Amino acid sequence: MSDSAKPSDDDFQELLKPFHQRASEAEGRLSRLEAALSNKQDSGSEESSKLVRGLQLKLEEVSAELAAERAKVARLTIEGAKKDYRILHLLRSLNEASDSGVSIQKKIQYI
């Protein structure tokens, strides 16, 4: 083969030029897509963080309400037990009064 039949480096470069151009365009599109995806993920994680913070605040509020309601239930339970005790003693006194023949009116006056 002669040197004239052998393609030169310039010929190869000229032949590969469209391929290099398309490759660099593809790399540019890819970098723009990666940047867009990165921005979308950042905003998505920021939105998720806000949502999680909001849910945590609601959970804290509900937990505080639950604790208050439990305290209220405990207080009312104690009050109910006291009233049951009073009713029990009033009924005993009433039964004793009716058994002994003492007038209920006289007992009520002393209470």
Count of helix runs: 2
Shape: rod-shaped
Helix content: over 70%
The overall strand count is 0
Report the uncertain regions: none
Gyration radius, in Å: 45 Å
Percentage beta strand: under 5%
Q: If you average the pLDDT, what whole number results?
A: 82
Distance between the termini: 133 Å
Which sequence of SSEs, written as H and E, runs from N to C? HH
Main sheet makeup: none
How would you describe this structure to a colleague?
The protein has 111 residues and is mainly alpha-helical. Helices cover 89% and strands 0% of the residues. The protein is rod-shaped and about 140 Å long. It starts with 8 loop residues before the first helix and ends with a helix.
Keywords:
111 residues, mainly alpha, 89% helix, rod-shaped
What is the compact description of this entry?
With 111 residues, the chain is mainly alpha-helical.
How are the SSEs placed, and which strands pair?
Elements: H1 9-100, H2 104-110
